[in-house]
Amino acid sequence: MTPLRPLLRTGAAALVLTLAAGCFAGGGSDQASDGRISVAMMQPPRSGLSPLSDDAFKLSRWSTAETLVQLDADGVAQPMLATSWQRTDDRTWTFDLRGDVTFHDGTPLTSKEVVASLQTAAQASPVPRILDGVELTVEAPDADTVVVKTAVADPLVPQRLSSPQLSILAPKAYTTKAVNPVGAGTGPFELVKVDGTSGATLDRYDDYWGEKAKASGIDARFVPDGTARAAALRTGDADVVESVPVGQVAQLDEDLVIEVPMPRTNTLYLNTTKGPFKDPTVRAAAREAIDRARLVKDVYEGRADEASGLLGPALPWAADLRSDPEYTQLLAQRAEPAKVDGVRITLGTFTDRAELPEVAVLLEQELEAAGFVVQQDVREYQFIEADALDGAFDAFILSRATVLDSGDPVAYMASDFGCDGGFNIAQLCNDDVDAALDRAAQVEPGAERQRLTMLAEAQVLGLDAAVPLLHERVIQGEAQGVSGVERDPRERDLIDADSSAGA
Q1: Where is the secretion signal located (predicted)?
Q2: CA dihedral 339, 341, 344, 349 (to 10 degrees)
């Protein structure tokens, strides 16, 4: 199958280039000369850059707002505004604050400001998703210490506090109903201006507690059109570009394109409670029918990774643990594929991710070659989600983030495959799966939690409740001479103190 991505016609290309140049007027090489970095962001703010929304990730990617804790590549908590912490009992954690931090308005950081920020998040409506279902209270026994308590034992408290939605801001940010992060962060760059949904301006904060930023500032522009973002990189109007569309890569210098594995898996969920896929042998037949290499080649033009499980290369520890004897034993218990002939199934997916309808076309071909008769139902996500969650489809293709804000995949697996999971499209309810998820959830982050997480994956795959298809990559553009830009699978970091646009 030839991907449905025709090259731009000359006139359309010229229009896009004009628009891109307008977005970055005065940017690119001119900005590099004065040490500023121009960035083309994929999405405009949806909530005025409030840290209590998904806009928080923009603040994090610009290194303007910071959290108590940050995560390393393995999802292990590391110091940020807190220098150390300890678990004093099952429900209580004590954090020691960094002593030389000032907010961008000059206010010193103390426990009072930390408590105010975290309490605002905990009492927000809606609550930031990292705190969904978590009852959290915060106290300040002295100016340098913060005590966090949860209603039930929670080994992930430090990881939760790494979420950009729990950024610590100066008191000035909370003086109106909407949280305003302008001039209120602690990072190496100060947010000085927001131009609605057009862009934002950040300047280097010279009193930063850590390493002084190499760049003198960041000029961010919001460019939802992927063709325009690619054009901005190609013409030199942007130094860094978020999420270059796969279909635009061929028109770019390969040296400017960086592929980063994402913790996001395209998965075929199979309805385990009703319809043909209630039978595990029929689920096994669907699993055997799928050619992952073809999906990666024909739909993603080779810019994705074939899936061996639910968790992909963005979690580097996952692959090695699949050789664990207990893991392989669980997979060996899979049902043998049935021979199907004329079995009718409904296959759903959505249009919001451009590749998924193409994936559905190829899967229909492969499943019908195996003996299924497939009826597709493809809609916008907002119009199909409720039916998918209600089990209206025999099979559903979903692009799913496998690591939520805590940096840990157990919450995703519990949501998608636990009996009480809120996103259980497979309608799976299995005692062994629930027990495996519970065991993993009780262990503090580290090697043992990772091992138990993979055993839970094996339980799910052993039932063929889900067929992982591929792991997505994000394609990031970086102009020639740019250095020190973060290539973060979790898309929390982008420009930091070490980033430079070059000469």
Answers
A1: 1-25
A2: 60
Strand 189-195 to 257-270 pairing:
unpaired
**Number of C-beta neighbours around residue 483 at 10 A:** 11
The conformation of residue 166, written as its DSSP 8-state character, comes to G
62 is written with which tokens? 């610009």
Q: What is the 3-state secondary structure (H, E, C) of 273-310?
A: CCCHHHCHHHHHHHHHHCCHHHHHHHCCCCCEEECCCC
Other residues' Cβ atoms within 10 Å of the Cβ of residue 251: 15
State the Cα–Cα distance between residues 135 and 122, nearest whole angstrom.
Answer: 8
Q: Do 109 and 158 contact (CB within 8 A), yes or no?
A: no
Strand-pair category, 240-241 with 36-41? parallel
What is this structure's pTM? 0.82
| pLDDT per residue as tens digits for the range 82-119 | 999 999 999 999 999 999 999 999 999 999 999 999 99
All residue ranges of the chain with pLDDT < 50 are 1-21, 25-32
- Domains of the chain from N-terminus onward: 72-116+124-164 (3.90.76.10), 261-473 (3.10.105.10)
